[in-house]
Amino acid sequence: MSILTQLNSPFLYIVCGTIILFIAAVSLFFLIRAYRAGKAMGIDTTKMKRVIAASATFTLLPSVGILLGVIALSGSLGTPWPWLRLSVIGALHYETQVATAAAEQAGLGGLSATTMTARGFVTICLLMSLCIMWGMVFSTLFNKRYLKRLGSGSGKSAGVSGFGDKAMTAMFIGLICAYLGSYIGGFISGNGRFTFTGSWLPLAVALAASLAMAGFVWLAEKKKQAWVESFSIAGSMLLAMAIAVLLGRL
Amino acid sequence: MNEKNLPAAESSAFDEEKKALFEAYNKSTHLFGRIASVITLVLLLGVPFVIGGYLGTSPDLKAAGSGFLAIGLVWFVSCIAEWLVYTPMLGAGGGYLAFITGNLINMKIPCAVNARDIVGVKAGTPENEIISTLSIATSSLVTILVLAVGVALLIPLQPLLQSPTLAPAFDNVVPALFGAMAYKYFRKNLDIAAAPLLIMSLLFILVPGLISSTSFMILPSGALAILLAWLKYKKTGGGGK
Q1: Mean pLDDT estimate for chain A
Q2: Is the dihedral of CA A73, A74, A76, A81 positive or negative?
């Protein structure tokens, strides 16, 4: 039996599927109790339903991107393990990098089905888990104390404006700036400093998504079509990705 | 029930009741969050050994140890930074769930921030705690569902998802996400966004090697944005937009 056949065996699907089912149950449990607590605290249920709808639509497209990560890794690691890792704790940008580095450390030379061994595979699995579990470890050990120190959840009401909220918005702006800066840098110096021969597609796609978002904001604010707000991010992404397909043909 | 319609004494009692409800909710959130995290950790670390048992082998602990020292330390630092930065944004319930389910930067954080904006709640409030948890739990469930359907239909879907025609679309999911978010956030905060964007662009242009470490560059970029927001906050006497 080839290694890939073993890595795609029903046993591995059952083991990984069971863990994913557990995580789904945890998510559902948190969703239900948050909804009930919100209702008991007097939060408008329409608002909460809107959040659920918006988050679901928001997640659809990136999830398809993550599915591609599963497909990309399934050629060397089989399907069940990447399926588990990208459903639980993993991150799209992280898994391929760490799996490749872990394969090198396990003495396989690289991530490939031809050099993969059973011992190499389970060592890669362990190393991938060891490398990325620390956020979960820290949240288990210190979340309560950390949030208490920050005074999170103690804000008197939604109307109280403090710097904490502005700091979080600023941090998010910083995150966006880092990514947009990398697209600009990638185009200008991606293939050598100031060569202007790097990929311009990420930059063009980001610009297209911004323009689409501007259109949605205009509809929501000027045309009073508030309903589009819930779908504006997903809609902008879809339009920008469609433009990526068109530009990719150039 | 509308808090605004209540007389002062009843309104205060209403606040107290709300506070007590939230505190009880928050306390149990930490308990459930910790239990779920510990079980997930045990499962994730145990699975390689279970699979090893099935395949008639076991992980090479020496290689795993040296591998962790070689590549894991970088991710260890990155994970701590992520935990420090994103936990205040997500609150307790959202935080536990996001660190269990992963995909923080490319999905959970933008999703929670978007949800927060849609209903207009502030970070650090009980309302944010509820909204953030709803958003991240929904996002996790949708991802699990999409991946499960995708894996079940992997054979028929593979040619479509991996077609060269659609490749540029799926290669650019993250730029599309951040492009859309950029308009939403920059339009009202251009004074905060301009300098970090300029400095990050210059850094990536002058030191292209940093492009592969973009996730690490979020920290200095975010720190600069927070500094600018702080200066603006002080300048406007703490109440400016």
Answers
A1: 87
A2: positive
State the Cα–Cα distance between residues B134 and B129, nearest whole angstrom.
9
Region label for A225, one of left (φ > 0), alpha (ψ between -120 and 50) or beta (otherwise): beta
Residue pair A132/B79 in contact (Cβ under 8 Å)? The answer is yes
Asked if A48 contacts A38 with a C-beta cutoff of 8 angstroms, the reply is yes
**Of all residues in chain A, what percent are helix, strand and coil, respectively (each to 5)?**
80, 0, 20
Q: Does the beta-carbon distance from B144 to A171 stay under 8 Å?
A: no
Residue listed under structure tokens 């930074």: B81
| Residue-averaged pLDDT of chain B | 87
Contact flag B172-A177 (C-beta cutoff 8 Å) = no
- Residues in chain B, how many? 241
Largest Cα separation within chain B, whole Å, is 72
Residues B111 and A167: beta-carbon distance below 8 Å: no
Question: Which burial class, exposed, middle or buried, applies to A52 when counting CB atoms under 10 A from its CB (0-12, 13-18, 19+)?
Answer: buried
Residue with tokens 């060592």: A123
* Tally of helices (H runs) and strands (E runs) in chain A: 10, 0
- Decide if pLDDT at A17 tops 50: yes
| Coil/strand/helix, residue B51 | helix
Residues of A in contact with B137 (CB under 8 A): 27-28, 30-31, 34
Residue A18 pLDDT greater than 50, yes or no: yes
Q: Percent of chain B beyond pLDDT 90?
A: 51
- HSE, side-chain direction, 13 A CA sphere, residue B225: 30
Most confident of A17-26, A159-168, B20-29: A17-26
Question: Contact A101/A110 with Cβ under 8 angstroms?
Answer: no
Checking if the pLDDT of A158 tops 50, the result is: no
Nearest to B221 among A66, A84, A174 (CB): A174
Q: How far apart are CA A231 and CA A175, in angstroms?
A: 22
Query: From residue B233, how far is each of A161, B230, B238 by CA, in Å?
Result: 11, 5, 5
Residue A189: pLDDT band with limits 50, 70, 90 = very high
Question: For chain B, which residues make up each domain, given as ranges?
Answer: 1-59, 74-152
Q: Looking at residues A84-107, what average pLDDT do you find?
A: 77
Any B CB within 8 A of A111 CB: no
Residue owning tokens 């021969």 = A197
Whole-number pLDDT of residue A75: 82
User: CA A106, A111, A115: angle at the middle one, nearest 5?
Assistant: 75
- What was the pLDDT predicted at B2? 45
CB B100 within 8 A of CB A91: no
* Chain B residues with CB-CB distance to A54 below 8 A: 114-115, 118, 135
A–B interface: beta-carbon pairs under 8 A: 614
B139 neighbourhood in chain A, CB within 8 Å: 55-56, 58-59
